[in-house]
Amino acid sequence: MSDCCDIVLAGAAIIDIPVVPVDASVFTRISSPADRIIMTSGGDAMNEALVLSRLGKAVRLITRIGKDDAGAYLKNICQSAGMDTTYMREIDGLDTGVNVVLVDQDGERRFLTNPHGSLRALQAEDIVPEALKQAKIFCFASIFVFPRIGPQQLEQLFRMVREQGLIVCADMTSPKQEETVHDLAPALGWLDYLFANETEAQAVTGAAEPADMAHILLETGVRHVIIKIGSRGCLIADQTGYMEIIPACPDTRCIDTTGAGDNFAAGFFAALLDGRSFADCARFANAAAAVSVEAVGASTGVQSAEQVMQRCKAAYHFPDFGAS
Questions:
Q1: Which uninterrupted H or E stretch holds 80?
Q2: What does each C-alpha distance from 247 to 76, 143, 201, 271, 307 come to in angstroms?
Q3: 178-209 tens-digit pLDDT
Q4: CA-CA to 165 of 20 to 30 Å: which in 33, 51, 106, 159?
Q5: pTM value?
Q6: CA-to-CA distance for 146 and 12, rounded, in angstroms?
Q7: What residues does 162 pair with on adjacent strands?
Q8: Cα 84 from Cα 81, distance rounded (Å)
């Protein structure tokens, strides 16, 4: 295991097969043409880890994959990117997840997913204190993805990470068992940063407006809340009463929104590691997401910190990224 680690990411690593563009007519024909059909890495933690590696950060990935050709493909990508794969568990008899991603002409996507593969296989015991050594940030990506990691397990996990002295972060997906903020409150209270999109935040809080969603989430004890609001950008809020909408990057040509939230989180963490303010982290996150949606595939758009930096400067007159 490498002693150098900026961030530990725990979550899914799978293969995505994006098909672009697709509409409902494909189900009326035997064969349909598509402009692009490619194979890429995917999964929340895998996407964030790969993008962060390209942004120059030292990454350790905690995940489960199958001991199969698909798993070997993903592990090779991680090692080629310089990630620490010590805690990338290869499980006999587990199929490495493969998602078919159907992307329409507006860049919106629908997934064909195998719920019995590695996508949902992570367990709480995979995240051990030894995996956190030398790291500054831990991110659990994502709440509600893994059926064996419920609110009680999350509370224990986040408490353990906090006791190790790391900044504790988590991303959210839509609740699978109608969980609410009441169910999650004991776990959320250990978080420094919580990411959710508007639909996800609404589902757990019951609120109609992003500002109200943020207030409800902050009441659980979360220190910083980031709610992604699509083409409008993101709303950020913290325990001091600060709240602001950071507008999205203008003139973004959306091709494929797959992994946009993961790229957003990766950009945010990169800026946080560089000592940026809360608002500037959100601006850099918006820029990473904008770059990502202009390419097919969840982790193909962002290739370097300089690329995202240029987008950030154009949108926000951002200062040089090296000066924190």
A1: helix 69-80
A2: 37, 25, 19, 17, 19
A3: 999 999 999 999 999 999 999 999 999 999 99
A4: 51
A5: 0.94
A6: 9
A7: none
A8: 9
